[in-house]
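Example (one chain per record):
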Amino acid sequence: MCLVIFDAAYAWWHRYHHLSPPLYKHIHNVHHQYFFPFVWVTQYEHPLELLAVSLYSIVVPVALGVHPISEWIWLITAIQLSVEAHSGYISYNILYQTFFANNI
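Predicted structure:
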């Protein structure tokens, strides 16, 4: 559930920044200034954008009242998905491969 809510909130946030010229020019454009596929470019962003995404990541599980261990699992998963998305590779099942590599 955390992934669904976070993904919807972030999709809205991201789209809004692309549609609003001032937000894109002064906030979101920083993220698009880095042109090379590199996993940690996911964190190459304006401090306000980093703060907002971090708050989305933390507030969603807290609002849902999940167990602290589930929150840690969610945060690790969110970071993994973000890093994978910016790696330059297409791998739709990297989490599956991480935990069940012997089954592939």
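Caption: The chain is about 70% helix and 0% strand.
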